[in-house]
Design goal:
- By secondary structure, the chain is mostly helical.
- The protein has two domains: 49 residues; 45 residues.
Length: 107
Amino acid sequence: MADAEPQRPLTDEELLSMRNEFRALVDRFDKHEAEEKQKYDKLLTMQSESAAAINRLADATHEVVEAWKAAQGALKVGALLGRFMKWLTSLAVIGGAVTWAVQHVTK
């Protein structure tokens, strides 16, 4: 720091130029800040509208979802009944075979 040159005083033109540049930067920042605030406000509005639309969609499709769940339940019950009928059929086949064997062997 010992080698630093002493600063010369700024001229009026340099001060005026720096002041104008500073004002231009402040104006640019203020404009940018206002634009970002508008974007943020628009984003909040869009988010609220989106949430409301999702709620309306959920309300509108509630019955369809319930019907779908009921259909899935009916399919599960149908599958269980199908397996039960298959099991009963296997018992009938075994029972029929045993009955035939008893009737023909005991004669």
